[in-house]
User: Fold these one by one.
Assistant:
Number 1:
Amino acid sequence: MSSTATPVAQSAPEPASAGIESAPETPEVRAAGPVPAGETAPAGTVGSGSVGRKAATDYADYRLVPARHPWRWVGTAVVAVGVAGIAWSLATNPRWEWGVVAQWFTAQSIVNGLMETLKLTAISGALGFILGFILALMRLSASPLLVSVSWTFSWIFRSTPLLVQMLLWYNLGYLYEKISLGLPFTDVRFFEAQTTTLIGQFAAAVLGLTLNQAAYSAEIIRGGILSVDQGQLEAATALGIPAWRRSTRIVLPQAMRAILPTAFNEVIGLVKGTSIVYVLAYSELFYTVQVIYNRTQQVLPLLLVATLWYVVITSVLSVFQYYIERHYSKGAVRTLPLTPLQKARKFLAIHTPAARESKQERGTR
Amino acid sequence: MSTALRTTTQTPSAAAATDAVTTRGLVEITKVRKSFGAAEVLKGITLTVEPGGVAVIVGPSGSGKSTLLRTINHLEKVDAGFIAIDGTLVGYAVRGRRLHELREKEILKQRTEIGMVFQNFNLFPHLTALENVTEAPIVAPRAGKPRLSKAEARDRGLELLDRVGLKDRAGAYPRQLSGGQQQRVAIARALALDPKILLFDEPTSALDPELVNEVLDVIRGLAKSGTTLIIVTHEMGFARDVADTVVFMDQGQIVEQGTPQEIFTNPREVRTRSFFSKVIEPAFNI
């Protein structure tokens, strides 16, 4: 803050003073270093000196001193100061216009936009991953035709910018006026419609996002499937388990462990990726925000509104991710790690005064 | 391939027709050849294992033992020759004077009659011991037998786990079990489909020495049950103990076969003698 006010004059002495400031800090910390060591040292030397050559004692009645980590505390302090600084500036700088943010955060138009964003994410995410799974199986199949179709699909949709795909689908009516289903090279038509009526903003958005998502998720799922040991398939085959069941019951659940982290990355990317459909003037969250700030000129606060909603969605997804990953780690680890909730309960059980007393009682017994 | 097949297909089917009861689990391997790229791994193997018999295949690594085992349940397709179980060809259907390659679904049915136990257990790590055992009986299409309901499969699964001494670990995941326990679960899993034939591909090679016996004891128990067993192993003491027939393979061929007495005590071939002198003597010296 202050450096921006007097840019040149202060920039030079600042690092110097920082250096001086940090100089006395280090010996202080170094002095702190030996303290825990000094505490434990007498116990250690007495133990090894007196007991080592004489009869063996057990150390059951000795007080246990946990290892100290002074640098962790230094690190924590530095980070805490940084976080506090940022929080302070966010709270006190009037230009963030938190009042405006609060006013628009739950406004009807914003909530409507949010719903559209969620709808797009859910539909294109689900369809994208289903199509991706099929493409992955095609790519891994024995048929050269299926392999090349799947490869070509991924190649095309991964090499075209999403924006271009979006506009292409939306303007399909320009390329092909009518869409029809019939026998090729004959006049037989079962179904025919104007492209523009068939593919509106929503259809174009879903098409673009789904196909793009499918191309990426196919590779993620394929990678997951390849990570499963070949012996698993062999064992399932030897047991006469049918092919589809082998994929869904034996291979896929094991592949999930490799698929999930990247897949959630993709879904979170998709949440924000939906904002690209603003080019179709589709009123999802981001487009809605743009429309509002073009009218009110409160650009940053409204972008903040959108950002906060994206943060909320990502947070919720992260919680899902944690529990879903935990579910699929069944059998892969000997004991499941505690959930944060279980950890909190355990912490409280140990650190509440009542628990501490009972622990001490147990210790003296 | 076809010449070998045409001339020999008559015999096993005739045998099956005449004596249906006692041929449960007759394995006939005739002139089987298999190559991986340029390397010929099986060079015309002919071997018959009688119903309820216990054949132990021994030999140096790379001699084609495991490949031979895997051709029996069609995990590997043979290049020439044929394999028949109770007179029915594995992987092919005979119609007139033609052999039709079977489709996946039919082959799966055949496989349910042949259980297999792998060197690395290959248990499904995300399923409990019991679920590992019950999976196939619930979903696998079986020839002439209905699929089991979940409850039936559960009862049968617990019974099998009990038989291998692991009833109390039914809910454990494979990673929570020792190697020996895992292999015993794998044996229970292979038994769940009531196979006529059980194939063991070095079932104790991945185990710590002190865990080997718990697995071998289970296999010994099976040897008396009337199921045909074909076992690839390096445990010579066990082979001597359990086998009716010992088959010594080297470089893709059967060098000699006979009773344990014949093969271990009086091998005819020089190659057999030199192999056993390396494998058995150190073991007996200990």
Number 2:
Amino acid sequence: MTSGEITVGNPVRTDVDKTSAPSAPVTVRAHGLSKSFGALKAVNNVDFTVTAGEIFGLVGPDGAGKTTIMRMLAGVLSADTGDIEVDGVDVTADPEQAKLHLSYMPQRFGLYEDLTVAENIFFYGELFSVSRTDRLVRSQALLKAAGLADFQKRLAGQLSGGMKQKLGLICALIHTPRVLLLDEPTTGVDPVSRREFWGILYNLRESGVTIILSTAYMDEAERCSRLALLHAGEIRYCDTPARLKATMPGVLLAIISSNPRALREALTGQTGILGVLLMGDRVHVRVDDPAQRIPEIRASLANHHVEITSIEQVVPGIEDVFVALLGSEETA
Amino acid sequence: MNLRRLFALAYKETLQIWRDPRSLAIALLMPLMQMAILGYGVSLDIKHVPLCVYDQENSQQSRGLVQDFVSSGWFSISRRLEREADIRDAMDRGSCNAAIVVPVNFSRTLAMNGTAPVQAIFDATDVNTTNIALGYAQGAMAQASREFVTGWAAAHGTQPSLVGQINLEPNTWFNETLDSRNFIIPGVVAVILALVGAQLTSLTISREWERGTMEQLISTPVTALEVMLGKLTPYFMIGLIDAGFCLAVAIFWFHVPFRGNVITLFTTTMLFLIVVLGIGYLISVRIRSQLGASQVALLVTMLPTNLLSGYTFPIDQMPAAIQALTLVVYARYYVTILRGVFLKGSSLTDLWMPIVGLSVYALLIIWLAARAFHKRIN
């Protein structure tokens, strides 16, 4: 079976080459998923397929529909049209059956702040009918991995933001889910906790758990196996980070300047410049042909009296790709 | 239904109640306070009606008559007047609600005619109080005339019965002292349990929505029925404790006679708790903010239980349409049951009608409550 055939059977609505469709057994499949709130189309005809052992990232600006998709996948929000299949179970028809095999961590902290770490873990273990031995073994291992072993008697409300998210993950993993749904799991989490968090996710992927997460962090998006770029409720692009970068039109230049704002001002609208993006002390400029445009840029900046330290061609990050792809859609 | 999940929920809910000592204190102390306030405050009896005395004769006999008013316990003398015009003044100032005027030749007229007029004046701005005070005054007068007749007979060496005195001895059953408190306190217990019960559970679902814990809870395999039963169980226990408190106060503090048996009381109280807790839960499912749910619970329970349960206003004296309306006021069944158990010692079979009414209600509420909660955000 080639990957191409799977794509034909399960059309993924993207504008990108679809050869990355996975050949492993499918565990989550969304088809023609739509949801409106009044006049607002929050999610519009979304299709995607995620296979076991993947970390699938939903990336997009606020209001793109990430949370709505997550909620529908978790079976806590009904879809207007379309269907979702989780591990062979139709979520839209039988959400309760699907819930046996999935774990969902909402964007807002969903555990009980007036219960301790251990009590929250116990509660969720009981809800998923985890045996006492399993619960103890798993919770000890997870608490250790998350650096929470010494905080079991602390009330969840007294944990830091990062600790809360890690506790949420522990509660989500106290049974053995086949699918893990994480809605912006590391928002407001410090870098160390985020590293520990991702350490746990990688281990899970190794053991064959399908992970779907939404994120607003581009560095986090880069860690995913595949990404869906969402915009206004639609998936515009869906592929691996590497392939997405390859699809980005043009070549990326990084220009370091003491006055990046003036630099952006000077270059915007110039022929051959596809996009200008401020990145702290530097400016990422996307051009169609570097050989021709670099001298032009130097000349133009000199004209505008903008001093620069260096210009060099760089490999684009996901943020560049994201802005480039969605930005070109806006103008198209 | 999975018992393990049900127990987990009940345990979690218990921990949360326990960790919130202020709410727990309110849940346990409020009924006691209400019991004291309503038990003392709501009484249809009027004691110590302020009485003005204008005794024009001031003889031994006239003083005896006034003394009969005072010793009845229903009146206390607030002023002794010297002029008839002072009566109007005293009434206007509110220093008395009733006045008696003993004429100047009272004892002579009585001795000559065997009867003598005494004027009693009432401030009838409060008709209810006046009617009751009037009754008391007649009672006191009857007592006085009995004493007079007995005294007259003794003085003339005859038996009192021989002077043809007719005495009406009213015989009251079940509430021998005609103490309206005995009648009202069981009703107060019902009203308090209806209020507190609905308050207790009205927050249980809305709290989860408000704190953001519901979304994760409904993503688990827990069923709506398990959520309902798991959440209601701890509040059922608190409700039983509250009921125990209120009933104990009624029996041991207010000395309402308890003639029934404890099992009847216990069974019917549990039935009533199911209804009131279920109603609070229904409200909680429908209204997603804690404040809103608590307000609605108060509104829905307060007026009907106070006005239409028959606890102060007798149902059989209401217009037919209102009487029909009281059938949906679940507290009326429990009021009837409590009065029966307390004052008449009624058994479960005696009380089959209100028990059936309450059972139908309980089944309906549980059915509605079980269907009301959906594991969905929208």
Number 3:
Amino acid sequence: MSTLALVASTATASASSSAPARLSHASGATAHGTDQSTFSVLLTTEDTQTPAELQKLATTSCKTEAQAQPISLQQTPSQNIESKIQLLASQNSLPLMYAASNPDIIPGGSLVKKGDVLNIETALSQLGVANDMTPLALSTTKAQFQGGVPSVPFQMNIEGLFYNKRIFANHHLTQPKTFAQLLADAAVLKKAHVIPFSASGASGWTISRWVGILLFRELGPNAMNLIAHKKAKLTSAAYMTAAEQVAQMGKDGYFSPGITNLSYNAAVAQFLDGKSAMMYMGTWLLAEILSSQNKVGRNNIGFMPFPAVTGGKGSIDQYPANTGSPNVLNPHVYGPHAQAWLKCIAENYGSASLQDQGVFTGFRTNQPVTGLAPITQTIQKTINSAKQSVLWFEALFGLKANDDASGNAAALVTGAMSPQQYMGILQADQSQP
Amino acid sequence: MAISSGRAEPAVSTRRARFTPAPPRRARTVQLSRKTLTRSIIGIILVVEIYPLFWLLTSSFKTENAFVSQPLWTIPSKLDFGNYASAWTTAHIPSDVMNSLIVTVSSVVVILLLGSGAAFALEVLVFKGRGGILFFLVGGLMVPAQLVLLPLFEIYFKLGIDNTLLPMIITYVGQGLPLTVFLMATYFRSVPRELFEACAIDGGGTYRCFFSVALPLVRNGIFTVGMLVFFSVFNDLLVALTFNSKPSLSTIQVGLLNFNGQYGSVAYGPLFAAISIVIFALLLLYLFINKQIMRGLTSGAVKG
Amino acid sequence: MRQVFGNRRAIAFFLAPTLLVYIGVVVVPVGWSLVYSVFSGSPASGFTFAGLKNFRALFADPTIPQTLLFTVKYATVLTVGQIVIGYSLALLFKFVLRRSSTFIRTLVFFPVVLPTVAVALLFAQLFAVTPQTGPVDSIVHLLGGHPVDWFVSGSHAFVVIIAMDMWRSVGLFAVILYVGLLDIPEDVIESARIDGASGFSLLRRIIVPMSRPIVVAATIFALNADLKVFDSILALNNGGPGTATTPLNLYMFQESFNYDNWGYGSTIAILITGLSLLVTVVVFRSLRRDITKD
């Protein structure tokens, strides 16, 4: 479902960007509004982590804040969150916290223009807790939202290749350092009747992410910004290479068979059943790896950076990163009680989320967290040491290009659509006013 | 569906077998093959209709992993009611079912009352411009339902009823009327006009002729249209999603979306458990009112 | 008699509430929405007058011919199936199974009750190749064919979509048409039998003509519903791959609700309404002519 993919890719941003000089001016309001009686929250139904953690905070670290302003939670399926936000905005009755989509909340976006988007960076420093947002989260947010900081970083995800250590050992494979090595490994696995890479056509972003990461490795961290600012075209030879490579991988049979309507669950299950060797995915996969769904054993799953492309401008230590689906605060109802809430969240959410759910956030972990699984610790170290992050394929796309990127991804790997057609559709979407 | 297309002929040929006088020997073989034909058709119908039910039920007992990793026809090794427990809490089933029933039943009652009255006026009563009005109403069938959502959202918001079930009911009534008027008019048309005239000659007024003569005559139609409207309202997702403002007001269809997770995952086991609960509750309800409905239908057939 | 059938007060009593609700909930909002077709923007950003820009975009949009063709193809195939199979089932209920048809009727009607999401999941599984080979591909394999990825192309997915929606809705038409058959007076059938009408000629001469009004009504209802197909395809494969199986209504929904092009969405809605109107008039005319010919 298209909109699930929308949430999955966590965010999008339109190509229509305002001039850099006006960025700071238009990047979100900081005005202090009037408190409502409740801390009203409107999130997607699919987001179960954030509400659970907020409600937990309301009974623990943020008890005082919750007594002054109790949480009232509304959730609506991602299928209609966009229209619901649009309709509520048109009635000037957005709740205090709401899930929005990128084009509306980047500098110059429709909700920013209406003054419905709080600048989180400014708000945190006014509350004296600017240091509680990690530098990686701040830089990732700014990249994701074209300079603005409209979203509370309830998550901090990086992406890479999860792999089955046992299958690697059985076939005498080591972590590939280059893309060519990765393809050679895939050929070995394919020959041995092991599916090299799990991916889902129904959640097509699991495929289109491959095009993105190859672009970042080949053309450098700036690859997709150039597209967003119309300084390069997806249909040019340099960009086409990535789509052609992914199509070729499909042709070689490296992805899950019957991929077109294969669900996300099924693709993940394929990997965690040990039927496939690797899966390109974000660190949110940890939840499944640590659950009983994992038949391979949590210590048999490894995480490695996506290999470099020889001669490419990008490097292996640049991880695609995001701060989760956007959660925006509404300045009109951002009064003293709401401010107290935000301060408490900044100070406590990071450690609570990691401790309770094993989910990394863009907040500092101020309390020690114990009992983490080895793979969680490894990934935590990777996140903490990550110097530079890059975005993902669809991050700066408009809503339509975002849908088309994942909707057509399966067709790209099955050969139902040529790389030229695939990139052509996306470029056409991006060229629209 | 290839399986079903085979059904068309037998119904016809069996009739021929019954009505063509044939020599006794041939009749026997014809009758035999007729029986096998009827039986095999019924057999096919049974498989096509029952298999999914079976699949639904077995799936509701499967674990997440079994659902995607084991063949579809596998029967779970043990009855695990864990899915049912988590379905019950995730989808707020008691309140969802309640909301769905309130919304559906009240919409259907209002639609049938208003729609059959209007159809009666347009088909039986005589006045200028009734053809035009019928066409104007039927035009509502041709407009995509999504078009009304944005203006209605604004209207309901301004009226201050946006936090109730009313927006759903009002919208369903408006959207259900064109179909109801259209079909009810067809049913009224098939009633011989002399019956209405007889009522008028007997000295019955317009209202009495409607309630005590016209309505009973088209009760099959009312039942059919009622059923049609009931399930289209009950299964609607679009309107329910748009006007759903909080979990305590959500309907079953909206509640089922609660099993979708972030990143495109779906909690299949609990989802199927929830669907099973809803389906079997409906089935019970259906069997409960079935006798009444069947009585209505068969008396219609006898009536002639 | 004119007092009874021409009673103005009664006419108003029966008609006014329906017209009032219909105008308030359908006509006014639809008119309001259609005005957006000459505007661009979204509720949050506000609307600005755009003239005929959306209509020009409609003609230039390469997705429109594709979705239009798919919609017409889908509606034609499905409607024919719904009416033909539905009518055959109705005949089976009425003349073969007669009183004992209750159980079968209930069963055939059952899929109508199922949530769309459940039906879509079922058919995705029935036609799956991975992770588990579904029954359909197992049968293909048994017959010596190669397993097919049923969702890989538009023409393959079309088969699944038609099978799904036929299964889901045919019971409804069977029951509507069955009730139509019940309303044929028994003595008319009997007297035709006495006149020597055998099975097929009885069907052709008496039953089909007498149930024609309900068949016409069901056809028009089916066509208008099928031309606006939306949620079942959304749940099955979201109109994929790409937009190969996207109907107009889903495309309109995506443009308005997912991509915030409310004006363009309204323009597509005008196209849908025009199409439905055209098809209804054509069907109505041609079936009417048939009636007079008989």
